[in-house]
Write a structure and sequence with these properties.
The chain is an alpha/beta fold. It is built from eleven helices and 18 strands. Bound molecules: nicotinamide-adenine-dinucleotide (NAD). Nicotinamide-adenine-dinucleotide (NAD) binds next to helix 1.
Length: 375
């Protein structure tokens, strides 16, 4: 890194790669920006909009450039592993969108490569940058509700997300509600409990159904009960099959944390700002080429987890998350980003939920990646 300026490569120029690259372009310490996508149309548009210094459809060529200090991997879920390993080879600092991999054995390999090479790597669990979760975590750590005995988590998602996500690949086996999206709620809950004695999950029992989304190769829902090391209980349920006309464009979450002397109840369904209009409202999450099948006239404004576009940019936790990471590149500060190890743990737990649902029996945690793959 020269003169406190960093050179950044963004691999994947789709929805999220674009957000990150646009935010990086605003950073005063950006010295050089390179973008990449196998879709050259998408890549060239982003390169022009962010005044990128370099663009290549070959991520290996990009990460080998001498100007690069740090890399953002924002390819779609199944295609994170090779860009991560190529970046590790060059010793670059890393920001990886979740999940680390969709194959548990590859995820373990990636984690080992990152740790063996002492790479500073973080994973994009954007919700850790929400004021409400940061404060809630602080209160729990300060003992405001005593000893946590019960956690109840409910995530509701508009089915536009699985429809758009699964449309971009035919490798859908591991693209389940928990691996792709529930992982955000799971990470927030585990982060709320981080460092508290006995709050590591040791067993999960789950069920999943596929009445609606089975035909596109995924589940509608996953409902699970975790037992923690000290016997406390956590229920984690998600449905990502809500109809496209549901006012929540993307994500709605409720988390209740019950303690021995208090309770913390987080309402994050975004019903605090509602718009109803004769004009259809936007899709919220709209990757290139995806069209929603029906219009939405009522919208819970603010349900798109990364934030909202206004005033020429994205405002919300993804701005905070990206900016904090870019600052970390310069200052070396410790931040609340998920580590690569957190990312790997989250993948294994979400896959263990899917395994339990398939087998119809409890699964011990943490599961063995090889066993998960074999199953
Ligand atoms: N943190 C969050 O809140 C959040 C929100 C949405 C998505 N995501 C994650 O971000 C990632 C990207 O999702 P998206 O919505 O931007 O998807 P997207 O489909 O809009 O973009 C992905 C891009 O990667 C490109 N790509 C695929 N393989 C490539 C390769 N080998 N080399 C170069 N480019 C390649 C594709 O052509 C596409 O343009 C996913 O992992 C997703 O789970 C995170």
């Amino acid at each position: 890194m020269e003169n406190d300026k960093f050179g950044l490569a963004v691999i994947g120029s789709g929805t999220i790669g674009r957000v990150r690259a646009e935010l990086a372009r605003e950073h005063p310490c950006l010295g050089w920006l390179g973008v990449c996508d196998i879709d050259t149309g998408v890549m060239n548009r982003l390169a022009a909009d962010t005044r990128a210094d370099y663009a290549s459809s070959d991520f290996r060529e990009l990460v080998a450039r001498p100007e690069v200090d740090a890399v953002i991997v924002a390819t779609d879920e199944n295609w994170h592993v090779d860009p991560i390993l190529a970046s590790v080879e060059h010793g670059h600092r890393l920001f990886v969108e979740k999940p680390l991999a969709t194959d548990p054995v590859k995820s373990a390999e990636v984690l080992r490569a990152i740790e063996d090479n002492d790479i500073d790597a973080v994973v994009g669990y954007t919700q850790r940058f929400r004021r409400r979760f940061i404060t809630a975590r602080q209160r729990i750590r300060e003992g405001a509700i005593g000893e946590v005995t019960t956690v109840v988590t409910r995530a509701f998602m508009n089915r536009m997300v699985p429809l758009a996500t699964l449309a971009r690949t035919d490798q859908r086996k591991t693209l389940t509600p928990m691996v792709v999206s529930g992982t955000h709620s799971l990470d927030v809950c585990l982060w709320l409990l981080e460092g508290l004695e006995g709050k590591e999950p040791v067993e999960v029992y789950a069920r999943a159904g596929d009445h609606v989304l089975g035909e596109i190769g995924t589940k509608d829902n996953t409902l699970a009960i975790f037992t923690m090391a000290d016997g406390s209980l956590w229920s984690m349920s998600i449905s990502w099959a809500l109809p496209v006309t549901w006012p929540g464009a993307v994500y709605g979450l409720e988390i209740g944390v019950v303690g021995s002397t208090g309770v913390l109840d987080i309402e994050d369904t975004h019903r605090d700002v509602v718009i109803a209009s004769e004009t259809p409202q936007g899709a919220g999450y709209q990757p290139e080429g995806f069209e929603a099948s029906a219009p939405r006239h009522v919208d819970f404004v603010g349900s798109y987890p990364p934030g909202d576009y206004a005033e020429g940019g994205l405002w919300g936790p993804m701005r905070e998350e990206t900016g904090t990471w870019l600052n970390r590149l310069i200052t070396g500060a410790t931040t609340q980003h998920a580590t690569a190890s957190d990312g790997h743990r989250n993948l294994l737990i979400t896959m263990a939920m899917d395994l339990s649902a398939r087998r119809g029996e409890p699964v011990k945690l943490p599961p063995d990646p090889t066993q998960l793959l074999a199953d």
